[in-house]
Amino acid sequence: MTLLYKADPERGKQWAQRFAHKAPDIAFRLWPDIGDPASVRYLAAWQPPDDPARTLPNLEVIFSVGAGIDQFDLSRVPPHIAVVRMMEPGIVEGMVEYVTQAVLTIHRDLFDYALQQRQRVWRELPVRAAATRRVGVLGLGMLGTAVLERLRLFGFPCAGWSRSAHSIEGVECHAGMDALDAFLGRTDILVCLLPLTDATRGLLDRHRFAKLPKGASFIHVGRGPQANQQDLLDALDSGQLQNAILDVTDPEPLPESHPLWTHPRVRITPHVASATRPETAVDVVLDNIRRHRDGLPMLGEVDRTRGY
Ligand code: NDP
Ligand code: OXD
């Protein structure tokens, strides 16, 4: 029985070492060296081959090496092949760090101080108490929940929005489209941690930005196509939005000539907010393989009707 790895080759080498140590009974192969295609039962991939069922006729499970699975064309994956997203502690830790630094950057006026520094201006700005800065997170899944649990410790009034109803201690939880406007209306710093689906593509447009309080800020760590970038620029230029920190864009990489690169109120990172860590991810995949062999549900199995 073989697990085939098809993603970043450097990380793949670390996966190979861990598999050799922890699961010597499972043959580990690094794409494109697939060996006998018929022996591949498990695929760990950022992007599967175009026609996975034909390339790997006995494939049973595709593990995404990321938390998102929108990069998979599910129409090419027959229903008998399970699709599992990555739910592992390393990716959570990285996202909590990234969003915390982004919220604090905005909260402690570091955009304004960077602009002042360029002009060699030494001027104090009034410090606002965390209790007066309302943070709102779109998406209350593995990542959104962990981020809110950390942010609320700073004293920010925290809220979240999801499809189904949730209850998180110290967090005002909103659910469904009918609740979106009220959630946006109480949010000074908006964080997007939604999966990309038909329902979330283009969700953040001029109408939604207009529902935020004037001067709100936006942190985008979900997927680029969830936000309309022209509407985002317009909202920044009009002052409806004060700052944006973007880890994801549409397309990626962002073209060199794109005006977001040089906007003084925008910070961009190249989709690095968080990534799977081999040292923790392999344990999760091995546990899921055991579950699959025992006929148990796997952690992170994707519901194809919802698309995440
Ligand atoms: P989960 O599947 O655990 O959570 C998704 C959340 O989004 C759930 O709360 C879900 O609601 C909510 N949601 C989905 N669709 C809708 C909708 N139409 N309306 C309202 N709420 C909705 O995902 P994760 O937390 O693990 O990851 C979220 C995303 O973060 C990933 O899909 C990926 O795109 C992005 N990501 C980005 C990274 C980066 O480096 N920038 C790294 C890792 C992930 P409900 O709870 O009701 O199901
Ligand atoms: C992911 C990502 O989905 O890195 O894990 O974006």
TrEMBL record:
<protein>
    <submittedName>
        <fullName>D-isomer specific 2-hydroxyacid dehydrogenase NAD-binding</fullName>
    </submittedName>
</protein>
<dbReference type="InterPro" id="IPR006140">
    <property type="entry name" value="D-isomer_DH_NAD-bd"/>
</dbReference>
<keyword id="KW-0560">Oxidoreductase</keyword>
<dbReference type="GO" id="GO:0016491">
    <property type="term" value="F:oxidoreductase activity"/>
</dbReference>
<dbReference type="GO" id="GO:0051287">
    <property type="term" value="F:NAD binding"/>
</dbReference>
<feature type="domain" description="D-isomer specific 2-hydroxyacid dehydrogenase NAD-binding">
    <location>
        <begin position="102"/>
        <end position="273"/>
    </location>
</feature>
<keyword id="KW-0614">Plasmid</keyword>
<dbReference type="Pfam" id="PF02826">
    <property type="entry name" value="2-Hacid_dh_C"/>
</dbReference>
<dbReference type="InterPro" id="IPR036291">
    <property type="entry name" value="NAD(P)-bd_dom_sf"/>
</dbReference>
<keyword id="KW-0520">NAD</keyword>
